[in-house]
UniProtKB/TrEMBL annotation:
It comes from the Bacteria. Keywords: ATP-binding, Cell membrane, Membrane, Nucleotide-binding, Transmembrane, Transmembrane helix, Transport. Residues 61-331 form the ABC transmembrane type-1 domain. The chain crosses the membrane at residues 43-66, 86-107, 163-180, 186-206, 277-296, 308-326. The lineage of its organism: Bacteria, Bacillati, Bacillota, Bacilli, Bacillales. One of its GO terms (cellular component) is plasma membrane. This is ATP-binding cassette subfamily B protein.
Length: 601
């Protein structure tokens, strides 16, 4: 239509990460002020949108005036000419036709701001989720996080639209109708003012109930989202054990609770809606009687009855719209509370001002390290002291729960000691920028994590400028060559969600290839070969022997035969290191390691 319409709809760039988090951390800030903070840098778009709304909405204001004029002309033709009829008709026609372009610009400018903020809000949430500590993610179920990122962000977008499409237009309607009425008759305008206390009273009576039912419904939605996520992940286990009926009953129970919360919310909103409708219909009848009485006495022309009735209908419909939209606004405010729970969380991994290691040699020192999880008096680690030389391969063994994987989480910086220190190259790990430090690490976790891309994408995840030769090399080292050659698309074969199209051993070897291609200084292997068959394990072990030369390697293994070639083995029991030595030394001492080995024979 015009250059304005064709312009790039992108709003000015705003630092959403800091703007949104700063706003969220202000405890005293109301949800409405938080919402306005989200629109920082976009408020001029909203202002322009409101200007176009006033123009496009003008027929609503013009129609009662023109109708009254025409009735007054028709009832007193001697005092008016037909030219006046045509003027009123033309004015009304123009005001109606202009609605097409102005409606376009009204929605266009509003959408620019709303869509930009919606994307920015989700971006801020994603950034925050990447910063939150591993413990926070362990505590909060993935389904609830998804609900906040998807449903609550959408609800806030809906809140913005409700405010722009219903709330502010209704306020403008009320103000304009009142001003136009007051311009003609203060007596009638005072009657109109009586509707305001009535609307405030209805909101006051229902406000607490609506807020409470919205909060209950939102929490039940999050719980359902979490349960659905768990159910989908558990489908293979459910099918394998014939537990479909039990899982269906479990989900039905959750859905019934959600149904009950939703029903109570609907009933509350129904009473709220019907109460304000009945009240304002009574006001409408009273307004008609009042203006007819004034016309009957001769205080106002007959045509003005229609005009005042039109203005009063506009006021009542606007106030009714305000009251009807209030439950949706309450839902949006509840979603703001929900999202602020994430943005306000202090449990982040803050690397601001910390030392960025230019390189990592790979020497580690554990000095009387103790670790206790919050709310638990049991020591996961209790006085662990150990020095690991750069380039050394050290394995941790012991019973389940002995603290082996916890040591690896300390090395990666996922956990921080309750007491004691973990040093890397002589520097306390708590003073190190973990983001840059971890780029020198490669981790193969106990649970293989793949995303729904190709095999190549999973191996080169996060890396650029990786050549085909490099990929082929690590594929061979991880014993993947034969498997990939059998696939129709080779390295470009899609693995499915969580690698569901591959076997456990294949997924594990891809994870090993992902670690190999990073050519790390420090390698962390948490049961890295646990899912491999004997032949594959043999090939991977040979590859590992080449990989770990000159690199510090931490290994956790239950199959003790896989760590025979480790430089040292640390035996853990109840959070302590009880033995350290080579495979042969520990076997010869006939201590804890010897007993563990005997159990596997």
């Amino acid at each position: 239509m015009s250059k304005m319409a064709a312009a790039n709809p992108a709003a000015p760039t705003v630092d959403y990460e800091h703007t949104f988090e700063a706003a969220a951390k202000e405890q005293s800030q109301s949800p409405l002020r938080f919402l306005l903070t989200l629109y920082k840098g976009n408020l001029h778009y909203l202002a322009i949108s409101l200007v176009f709304f006033m123009i496009k909405h003008s027929p609503v204001f013009v129609l009662p005036i023109v109708t009254a004029n025409m009735i007054n002309i028709a009832t007193n033709p001697s005092a008016h000419s037909t030219r006046e009829l045509w003027i009123n008709f033309i004015v009304l026609g123009i005001s109606i036709i202009q609605n097409i372009p102005t409606q376009h610009y009204y929605i266009s400018f509003m959408s620019r701001a709303v869509r930009h903020v919606e994307a920015g809000l989700r971006s801020a949430l994603v950034r925050k989720l990447q910063q939150l500590s591993i413990n926070y993610h362990r505590e909060l179920q993935a389904g609830k996080l998804q609900s906040k990122v998807l449903r609550d962000a959408e609800a806030i977008e809906g809140l913005s639209k409700q405010l722009m499409l219903s709330f502010l237009p209704s306020i403008i309607n009320v103000i304009v109708a009142f001003v136009l009425t007051a311009r003609n008759s203060w007596t009638v305008s005072m009657f109109f003012l009586m509707t305001i206390p009535a609307s405030v009273l209805i909101i006051y009576l229902f406000r607490r109930k609506i807020r409470s039912t919205n909060k209950d419904f939102r929490r039940e939605i999050e719980q359902m989202s979490s349960r659905v996520s768990e159910m989908v992940e558990m489908i293979p286990v459910t099918r394998a054990h014939g537990l479909e009926k039990i899982e269906i009953d479990r989900m039905d129970s959750t859905l019934r609770k959600l149904q009950g919360k939703g029903y109570r919310l609907d009933i509350t909103e129904a009473f709220f809606g019907s109460s304000n409708w009945v009240l304002f219909q009574l006001f409408q009848v009273c307004c008609l009687l009042f203006t007819i009485y004034l016309a009957y006495k001769g205080d106002i022309p007959v045509g003005d009855v229609v005009m005042y009735q039109g203005f009063f209908s506009m006021i009542l419909s606007s106030i009714t719209a305000l009251l009807n939209v209030y439950p949706n606004i309450a839902k949006g405010f509840e979603s703001i509370h929900s999202i602020r729970e994430i943005l306000r969380s202090p449990e982040i991994e803050d690397n601001t001002g910390k030392m960025k290691l230019p390189d990592v040699d790979g020497s580690f020192s554990f000095r009387d390290v103790k670790l206790v999880y919050p709310g638990n008096e049991h020591h996961v680690l209790d006085g662990v002291t150990l020095d690991v030389r750069a380039g050394e391969c050290i394995a941790f063994v012991g019973e389940s729960g002995a603290g082996k994987s916890t040591v690896l989480n300390l090395v990666t910086g996922f956990l921080t000691p309750t007491a004691g220190q973990v040093l890397v190259d002589g520097v306390d790990l708590s003073a190190v920028d973990l983001t840059t430090y971890r780029k020198r690490l490669s981790v193969v976790p106990q649970t293989t994590i793949l995303f729904s891309g190709s095999i190549r994408d999973n191996i080169t995840y996060g890396l650029r400028d990786i050549t085909d030769e490099q990929v082929r090399h690590v594929v061979e080292m991880a014993n993947l060559t034969e498997m990939i050659e059998r696939l129709p698309d080779g390295l470009d074969t899609m693995v499915g969600e969580h690698g569901g199209k591959l076997s456990g051993g294949q997924r594990q070897r891809i994870a090993i290839a992902r670690a190999l291609i990073r050519d790390p200084r420090v390698i962390i292997l948490d049961e890295a070969t646990s899912a491999l068959d004997n032949q594959s394990e043999h090939h991977v072990q040979k590859a590992m022997q080449q990989l770990i030369k000159g690199r510090t390697t931490f290994i956790v293994a239950h199959r003790l035969s896989t760590i025979r070639d480790a430089d040292r083995i640390a035996v853990m029991k109840q959070g302590r290191i009880v033995e350290v030595g080579t495979f042969d030394e520990l076997m010869a001492s006939k201590g804890e390691f010897y007993n563990l080995k005997q159990l596997q024979l």
